[in-house]
Each structure stands twice: as structure tokens, then as C-alpha cells.
Task: structure prediction
Amino acid sequence: MSVRSNPRLGFSFENLMWYFTRISGIAIILLAIFGFFAAFFMDARTVLSVNEWFRWSFFPNPNHVVNTDIPDVTQGWANAYWQIMQMLIVFFGATHGINGLRMIIEDFIGPSWGRLLLRSLLFAFWIFLLIMAVYVILAS
Result:
């Protein structure tokens, strides 16, 4: 295991990603709470069980409630508000997680072609995740 050098003063990529990790963690929690209360005010309390209600808070996809007794989910839930909420949660969650994996690669893989290869694969996987998430969100 290699030892990292001391970070430079000022803004660097590592410094920005450190701030992003903290901010994205808070943003995910706030978006989930906001989605929970928005669903509450959209009458989720009368048509959803608690499990389904929490599922909507984290990823309000109309296809998630197929097994419930909601008459027509696409009218009230598949709108621009919920799509933006989903995209924000997916962006913050995926980027937060991928940054954690990047930090593991930085910590445990020495400076070599293997580190560059793994970081490149991780970046490609992150782009793929975001593209597929946006497709699923907009197509449902």
C-alpha cells in the first residue's frame, strides 16, 4: 500500500471531490425527505402502504407500483417534477458511489497502468449508469 503525499493548498480535483462527497450525501437525504413529504401531500398516504411510500421517496418510478391497487399511476406521478427528482437522486447517488470506488482505487492501486485502466473503466461505467438511468426515467 502506498502512502499519499500531502494535498496542496487551494482547490484541486481531490479537494473538490471531498466537498462533493459531503454535499451529495446531504443532498440525497434532503431529496428523499422532500420526495417523502411531496408524496404525502399528493395523497400517497391514502393509496400507498408505508413500504411503497418509502420506495417512492427514493425512486418514484411509476413501474414500482405495479403490484399495488393504485388505479392510474401515470397521471399523477409520471410528470416533470418526479422525473427531475429521480434524475437528481440518481446523479448524486451514482456519482457519490463512483467517487467512493475511485478513492478505493487511489488508495490500494499504486501509480501504474492498472490504476489508469481501472479509473478509465470506472469513468465509462459512471457514464453508462447515468445514460441508462436517464433513459429509464424518461421512458417510464
Residues 13-139 form a domain with the 3 helical TM bundles of succinate and fumarate reductases fold (CATH 1.20.1300). Residues 74 and 82 are 11 Å apart (CA to CA). The chain has six helices and no strands. The chain has one domain: 13-139.
